[in-house]
Design brief:
The complex is a heterotrimer of chains A (about 325), B (about 260) and C (about 375). By secondary structure, chain A is mostly helical. Helix content of chain A is about 75%, strand content about 0%. Chain A has 16 helices and no strands. The radius of gyration of chain A is 26 Å and the shape is globular. Chain B is about 80% helix and about 0% strand. Chain B has 11 helices and no strands. In chain C, helix 7 crosses helix 8 and helix 9 crosses helix 10. Classes of the chains: A mainly alpha (about 325), B mainly alpha (about 260), C alpha/beta (about 375). Chains in contact: A-B, A-C, B-C. Chains A and B meet through helix 1, helix 2, helix 4, helix 6 and helix 7 of A and helix 1, helix 3, helix 4, helix 5 and helix 6 of B. Chain A: Belongs to the binding-protein-dependent transport system permease family. CysTW subfamily. Chain A: It is found in: Cell membrane. Chain A: Keywords: Cell membrane, Membrane, Transmembrane, Transmembrane helix, Transport.
């Protein structure tokens, strides 16, 4: 649906629109009563708008977390019957007292940052190409083309990457066939193979916000800048980039958040020295099935850290945007 | 625009397409391997794995089950997510930051933790494990993604449009439905694709909240226990083909709708 | 343990046996009196053979709902989340993880008077030391697995595979893989200690020192390992892709590779190794206890069912006389020479709390090293 068309239609028909559906709706008694009741004052209008979302986030988003917080503060969970539960913060202290956990923790944050950056660098030109150099008719098709592979489950895709990068994998076979190597290159089970797998998974989450930001960028702006004698790089830096910061920021936020929580891909594609924090947390839930409180406490620590970083990042982006406008 | 740049960009695009598609092609190819394991070298080929998929009632019903869950949970996420985005974007009120924080909460929690939290909470609420519980968990989990995408689009909505409509006598709801909503459609489409993907691909929440009927990822995980066989590749390929067909049809359909309207 | 191994040998070499047939044995006819209903089972793929399931449903009118699980820990978490009123009747627990389930009060002890097919299980498994806890039986053994050294026989010789040392040799550096948790027990065994740690229950200091020693050994050898893996499918894929040429593995995944024609060999090395048993267990407060017993009696009813499970999973059947239903290749991939079997011990759970209290942090330390 084209936005312009409907906006035009809206503008044209709102005043004398008794014949249209909207006009009939606006004139329908019960609707009028409802509308005038709910919009009588800005305050009432706000309450009507806000009640449902607030109830939803409180009960649906916060509820499970509160349950988890409760678990993280108890000394034993699941509780055996007859055993009394006590409140404790020992599980939080455990993280701060044992340097053993710091390494996977910081590694996860660093990996997530690096992979987010790689994803951005890789997908920005792709989104740019799609939004600026492809005719609108083919755009959707080319975009859909890129979405197809993401429809394959994470595990199957991950095994496909093993078949690609293994010692007898496709890449090594091709290199060997061209006589470039004698012995296979061990790509698998390194941070490289892990990066290939993770960027594959995150690319989509970066691509879509970037694409929608670039798509709505008016072409005329660039042309105007070119008329003023700005070179391609300057145009990109001074015009395109600042105007797409919104997209970059939401894409990076999404990808960063998603990559801190990845479990299966790093476990399957990583090597002996690439343990991520999600793996540590999951360990408390399944390898040692009775340590839920520790796992829950660690999850909350991870969550708070990711939240802080995201908030700082968002602030930085807002500053950049404001800085550019002045 | 400079021709050289254009060629360079299209090379990057097609290199990206290759990166994304090569594993996929390998997956499709391995479904033809006459062995119980995937990998090179392939000594002989067979059609049995692919034929088997369409004869296997368990796989087909798992696929349909996953599709139904994805569609239902996406509808839920879109409604709730758009609503929250409209509330949060461009409004200043006491507690806005807190609500925003709570909104993106589900996206921040690692899968296994969120799955267990949902499971405990479902029991607390009295939701029976099964389709309803999975739809609920997927819908809640996907809301933040909808909110982020819709808010990004909403922030660029020219205020003048709404004001014009209001000046002309449209009440807020009609102004929303006629001006804001059409403007949001591309973002909502994008967000729907996100949600469908996240739901269709989700293993851990489906596992913890599911009943005795497996979703496709749960079935694949269970089959993986006895080895990564070409059968799994064949199932994934078939699922991909079917969803691609549905996707292309949906795209055509919306395009035709747009032309008509 | 010696008695156990003798029984085991006898069991594994049994070929000919009196004809037990699948064709509608007595248990099913008796079960006809039941009025249908359903039975809910959590188990691994292929642990309830499809043909058996259909026959059982037809003849008893009880609907079998199978929920596939893929991991013991997840199963535990799931059951713990459902307790005290689970939806499940029968689960599949690994024998050495009993204690965790029992301590959390998730299992009901088996009532052997109602379990008329109990006698069909090889006593090696049904009567061995790990199977009785607190004076009760908690699970009916169905399949058995063991930790083996598996190797690509085009590269590694059978002689080299006789010792775990080869796994840590410089020659195969970067071409090996193992599951750390499991390897910890084996390293303790290599060093001449009791990997079950039951012997050190009264001496926690000694236990801590042993775990420390094993941990240091694995940290020292970390530069040579290609991958710490978790699942059998990963191991198989590494072998097929030739990312590794040898590794520690469970016998099931290795057997599946052998049966597919991959040049794989497996041994129980001279330093010894551990085995475990999958059992069917009844959940505490399960919704359909009567149907659960009917199901257990039926599935344990014939060695042919046991053989079908072995064919599908690669694990060794615990049923008496089931090997007569296997082909020669299947027999080969699920049996070991007597002198190797003599090195095998079963995992035990008595010291698990102490053991995993020490081993889990050690595993984290190895990963972080």
């Amino acid at each position: 649906m084209s936005y312009d068309a409907s906006a035009r239609a809206a503008r044209g028909t709102v005043p004398a629109s008794d014949a249209t559906f909207w006009g009939r709706l606006a004139g329908w008694g019960p609707y009028r009563a409802m509308a005038s009741f709910t919009t009588a004052s800005p305050r009432r209008q706000f309450i009507v708008l806000a009640v449902f979302p607030i109830l939803w986030v409180l009960t649906q988003h916060l509820g499970p977390m509160v349950q988890m917080l409760r678990v993280s503060l108890t000394d034993a969970y699941p509780v055996a019957p007859g055993v009394e539960q006590h409140l404790t913060i020992e599980h939080y202290l455990k993280f701060f007292q044992d340097p053993l956990f710091w390494q996977p923790f910081f590694r996860t944050l660093i990996f997530a940052g690096v992979f987010t950056f790689c994803t951005l660098i890789l997908t920005y030109p792709v989104a740019y190409f799609l939004a600026r150099h492809v005719s609108p008719k083919n755009r959707m098709l080319l975009l859909l083309l890129l979405l197809i592979p993401f429809w394959v489950g994470e595990i199957v895709r991950t095994y496909a990457i093993m078949i690609l990068l293994g010692n007898t994998g496709a890449v090594n076979l091709v290199l060997k066939w061209f006589g470039l190597i004698d012995r296979p290159i061990p790509f698998m089970y390194t941070s490289f193979s892990m990066g290939v797998g993770i960027v594959y998974l995150t690319a989509l989450y970066m691509l879509l916000p970037l694409y929608s930001a670039l798509e709505k960028l008016p072409k005329s702006l660039n042309e105007a800048a070119a008329d003023l004698g700005a070179g391609a790089w300057t145009r990109f830096r001074r015009v395109t980039l600042p105007l797409t910061i919104e997209g970059i920021s939401s894409g990076c936020t999404l990808v960063f958040l998603i990559s801190t929580g990845f479990y299966a891909t790093p476990v399957l594609l990583g090597g002996p020295s690439t343990t991520v924090f999600a793996e540590t947390i999951a360990g408390f839930f399944h390898v040692a099935g009775t340590q839920w409180p520790t796992g829950a406490a660690f999850a909350i620590i991870m969550f708070l850290a990711a939240l802080c970083i995201t908030a700082a990042f968002q602030r930085l982006m807002t500053m950049l945007r404001k800085g550019d406008k002045t | 625009m400079n021709r050289r740049n254009r060629i360079l960009l299209s090379c990057v695009y097609w290199a990206f397409v290759a990166y994304v598609f090569v594993p996929l092609i390998l997956m499709v190819l391995m479904g033809f391997k006459d062995s119980k394991f995937i990998g090179f070298p392939i000594r002989s080929y067979t059609l049995d794995w692919y034929m088997g998929v369409f004869e296997d009632a368990e796989t087909i019903s798992a696929f349909l089950y996953s599709v139904a869950i994805a569609v239902l949970s996406t509808i839920g996420s879109i409604i709730v997510g758009t609503w929250i985005a409209v509330l949060l974007e461009g409004r200043k009120f006491w507690g806005r930051a807190v609500i925003f924080g709570m909104t993106i909460l589900p996206a921040l929690i690692p899968g296994i933790i969120s799955a267990i939290a949902f499971r405990i909470y479902a029991r607390y609420l009295g939701i029976e494990p099964g389709m309803g519980a999975i739809v609920w968990a997927h819908a809640v989990h996907n809301v933040p993604f909808v909110v982020l995408v819709v808010m990004a689009r909403l922030s660029t909505l020219p205020k003048s449009q709404i004001e014009a409509a209001r000046d002309l006598g449209a009440d807020p709801l009609i102004a929303f439905l006629r001006i804001t909503f059409p403007y949001l459609v591309p973002a909502i489409m994008g967000a729907s694709i996100f949600c469908l993907l996240l739901s269709f691909d989700d293993f851990v929440r489906s596992f913890f909240l599911g009943g005795y009927e497996p979703t496709l990822p749960v079935l694949i995980f269970a089959k993986l226990k006895s080895g990564m066989s070409p059968e799994i590749n064949a199932i994934a390929t078939a699922a991909l083909l079917l969803t691609a067909v549905i996707g292309v049809w949906a795209e055509r359909f919306t395009r035709r709708m747009n032309k008509d309207s | 343990m010696t008695k156990l191994i003798l029984n085991r040998r006898k069991f594994l070499s049994t070929t000919a046996a009196a004809g037990a047939t699948l064709a509608s044995p007595a248990y099913l006819r008796r079960a006809h009196a039941q009025q249908g209903g359903e039975v809910n089972i959590w188990t691994y793929n292929d642990f309830v053979p499809e043909a058996f399931k259909e026959q059982f449903q037809d003849e008893t009118g009880i609907k079998v709902n199978v929920r596939l699980v893929d991991d013991q820990g997840k199963q535990f978490s799931l059951l713990a989340a459902e307790a005290p009123n689970p939806t499940v009747d029968i689960m599949t627990v690994a024998g050495h993880r009993f204690l965790q389930f029992i301590d959390s009060d998730l299992l009901a002890p088996l009532d052997l008077d109602r379990l008329t097919s109990w006698g069909n299980i090889n006593p090696t498994f049904s009567e061995s030391d790990w199977s009785t806890i607190n004076g009760e039986k908690w699970g009916a053994p169905i399949l058995s697995g063991m930790e083996v050294l598996a190797y690509n026989s085009d590269v590694v010789t059978a002689e080299e595979a006789q010792t775990w040392d080869t796994l840590f040799s410089d020659q195969y550096a970067g071409q090996n893989a193992y599951i750390i948790q499991d390897m910890m027990s084996i390293v303790m065994l290599m060093m001449g200690y009791d990997g079950n740690m039951v012997a050190y229950l009264d001496d926690p200091e000694k236990a801590a020192q042993i775990v420390e020693e094993a941990k240091n050994f694995l940290i020292e050898n970390k530069p040579k390992v290609r991958k710490f893996y978790d699942g059998g499918a990963e191991f198989q894929q590494m072998m097929v892709n030739q990312d590794i040429v040898l590794g520690h593995s469970w016998n099931g995944p290795a057997a599946a590779l052998i049966n597919d024609g991959f040049p794989l060999g497996m041994t129980i090395p001279q330093e010894g190794s551990y085995g475990f048993v999958y059992t069917y267990n009844i959940a505490k407060n399960c919704p359909n206890p009567d149907n659960a017993y009917t199901f257990l009696n039926a599935i344990l009813g014939s060695p042919e069912i046991g053989a079908a499970m072995t064919k599908a999973s690669g694990f060794i059947s615990t049923y008496k006389d089931s090997s007569q239903y296997l082909t020669d290749l299947e027999k080969k991939s699920t049996s070991f020479p007597d002198e190797q079997l003599a090195n095998l011990q079963f995992f035990r759970s008595e010291a698990n709390e102490m053991k995993y209290g020490l081993v889990d942090p050690a595993v984290e330390a190895i990963k972080a090293a």
